[in-house]
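We both want to read discrete structure tokens more fluently, so let's practise on a single case. Would you supply a protein for us yourself, any chain you care to pick? Would you write everything just below, so we can both look at the same thing?
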Amino acid sequence: MRVALSLAALPSSTVKWPSASVAGLIGVVYYVVRLQTQGFGGYRHLLAMVFIQNLLTQAIIIGAIALAIATGQDNIYAAPEYSVDIRTGASGVEGKTWIHAGGHALFGLVVGTLIAWLIGCLILLVTQKVSPREKISPSAA
């Protein structure tokens, strides 16, 4: 949604509100609830679900950065006001670079997945204590 709104020439101050990070965290909470209520799996299954979700998110972001590189036109994911140099921490750097896209491919995918998974694990731990699920025996299935 952010890319489409950005390409529609809406100002960045408007486009910044629909957040992929917030949507991702909502997805993690949904996964935890489904794991707990459906008896689907545990922590390692949650990791796989979070990884797949984050892979899609990072692919969209990398695609938006690649589009900005190809067209030479900033979008919300390549705008200097939202780009940070990870080496120095300086903001306002050029966002239309392959280094930026590569950072999302490596850092965003690995670290983002692990952080979301750890948050999901904490939520799952709490939900398991508050509402233990019944184990389904193989003979009952």
